[in-house]
Amino acid sequence: MSWTFLSRFNIKADREAEFLTLIPQMEMNAAEEIGTLAYKFYRLDAPHAFAVFESFVDEAADNAHQANPASTGIIEKMIECIDGTYTREYLRHIEG
Fold it and tell me: How many CB atoms neighbour CB 78 within 10 A?
């Protein structure tokens, strides 16, 4: 069973251009990770609102993704761009 979620967040208006430059780097790093099934950023309808869809083979793969040395510096920069906090919505498989 995969470990899948959607994270939603707002970006500080004065940091949006910087944030946009970080997205391709994160998506590229995630694509090379063994346990990552999907990793894609999206712009939402509200101003400065974004989401990232993440799917991993399991929770351990998500933890490995967060600890990936190629991404930790990028993640820190992205977090600095976030206005407030983020929400994480887990997506569960429908049985049956």
Answer: 22
